[in-house]
Amino acid sequence: MFMLCIILLQIPFVYANVTPLDSNNIDSVLANNEIVFMNFYADWCRFSQQLKPVFEEASNKFSNLLPGKVTFASVDCDRN
């Protein structure tokens, strides 16, 4: 149990306001926001992995300041 607690403490818990985009929701996300920052990523890409925490942090800081005006979205390039 002790080892499980140590492992869980090492996992970063990040609440991100990043909206996953796909063909089902892209039109509504673009229509309902003035500015959409989009992250096109692939899970296997080292640069995508490096950008993810930075993008999530920016999303956490700015999405709540201007709701309905600014949003952060991500597109999985392998799926879409």
From TrEMBL:
Matching InterPro entries: ERP44, Thioredoxin-like_sf, Thioredoxin_domain
GO cellular component, one term: endoplasmic reticulum-Golgi intermediate compartment
Claim: Signal is one of the keywords in the record: yes
Gene Ontology MF terms: protein disulfide isomerase activity
Top-level taxon in the UniProt lineage: Eukaryota
Biological process terms in GO annotation: protein folding
Keyword tags: Signal
Secretion signal, residue range per the UniProt entry: 1-16
Domain Thioredoxin: 19-80
Protein name per UniProt: Thioredoxin domain-containing protein
Taxonomic source organism: Acrobeloides nanus
